[in-house]
Amino acid sequence: DQQVKQNSPSLSVQEGRISILNCDYTNSMFDYFLWYKKYPAEGPTFLISISSIKDKNEDGRFTVFLNKSAKHLSLHIVPSQPGDSAVYFCAASAYGSSNTGKLIFGQGTTLQVKP
Amino acid sequence: EAGVTQFPSHSVIEKGQTVTLRCDPISGHDNLYWYRRVMGKEIKFLLHFVKESKQDESGMPNNRFLAERTGGTYSTLKVQPAELEDSGVYFCASSQVAGFNSPLHFGNGTRLTVT
User: Fold this and answer.
1) Does residue A64 belong to the interface with chain B, where contact is any CB pair within 8 Å?
2) Mean pLDDT of all residues in B106-113
């Protein structure tokens, strides 16, 4: 039973355009959502997060949108750059109820940004 | 500040053998997590230490896996005896606190191959 799903295994965009990565979740107890980026042979690195009390968080070229009623979040990268090519993982946690810091990850989406 | 370090980076063992993975968290991080990614799927939670205590070990697959964190510093994850399905990348992560605004910092992982 996968609580966090990234239904698109891969995405290819042209440099300078917008990349939109999507994530769906099923557990209504999740109150904190994160995106991690992973390069080959490296561990995931934290990118951006959002609390369930917000619907948008922006950090430079990266913006995360949260739609709680649809249990959906998305990561927008604009403009996309070739260095953004990586695997992007969506993750969620129920800090308010569990306080363990345990993250539930999706399967990842491989983003390729073409020059 | 040194990041999370894991050793070895790769390990190839035969079915039935024993392997021990080591993780050194970021200094001062009381929370230490083990995760595993199998065959390009989602990154799955294994367990969570707070200092030397196991806070949550609900993700441990079976009793062939033993995690320790003596003294609350580095941690080891032992697989004994290893099975083919144990192959994957084992990630360690740490955080100062288990909560909002304290994202997990991941190591580069240990790629375990059981033949």
Assistant:
1) no
2) 97
